[in-house]
Design goal:
DUF1315 family protein, 0% strand, DUF1315, mainly alpha, 3 helices, 90 residues
Amino acid sequence: MNVEQMLAVLDADIVERLKTAIEIGKWPNGVALTAEQRQICMQAVIAWEHQHVDEKQRTGYIDKGKKEEGEVCEDDHHLHEPEFKPIRFV
């Protein structure tokens, strides 16, 4: 079975069961997933979500935020910390 055939038979319910199996490391019948099975399941979930799910709803999505042009980060927490002094071993 190639990737296109595999993705054609998957639906949202099957993908949710695959995600649960990946999370707990077991199939619904209690049999443990092998490392290879876990890897294949992850690849299937990622590929299916890429075709059927909005980017922000996909597994592993990280919202990186956006800055306007010329905007700088307000990261001044280091100004309130004492000066860094390395440890000297004698």
